[in-house]
Amino acid sequence: MGCVSSKRSKEDEGKKKIRKPKPWKHSGPITEAQLTQMREEFWDTAPHYGGRREIWDALKAAAEAELSFAQTIIDSAGVIVQSNDLTVCYDERGAKYELPKYVLSAPVNLILDN
Question: Where does the record place Basic residues bias (predicted)?
């Protein structure tokens, strides 16, 4: 027999504590300017992938914020976090939101612009 309280509810899923993504490497060296351009292109086109605009806006704000503030943004927007690093999330209606690692953190092979 299992205990009802031992299962995670949908509400608990949305309360996962988010964390920084694991270090990752781009396919080749990339400059800060190129990374910024990739991020801008993603956020400009993200609402066309489906889901609600306000959730995309909240995810963008969380991706660009400090970790503790990002948690507040995610919780306030009602985002259900599947992956603690925000790469896979859902809204309350069940729409899926997938974020590439490059919008969440910089790669280890980033070339700093001078």
Answer: 16-25
CB 39 within 8 A of CB 103: yes
The C-alpha atoms of residue 107 and residue 102 are separated, in whole angstroms, by: 7
Instruction: Dump pLDDT digits (tens) for 96-106.
Output: 999 999 999 99
State whether residue 91 is helix, strand or coil.
Answer: coil
What is the strand order of the sheet 80-81 is part of?
80-81, 88-90, 96-98
The answer to whether residue 108 is domain-embedded is no
Whole domain around residue 46: which residue ranges?
Answer: 24-102
Give me the residues paired with residue 111 across strands.
Answer: 31
- Does the model's pTM come out above 0.70? yes
List the structure tokens of 90: 């859902």
What is the rounded CA–CA span in Å between residue 64 and residue 104? 7
**DSSP calls for 45-74:** HGGGGSS-HHHHHHHHHHHHS-HHHHHHHH
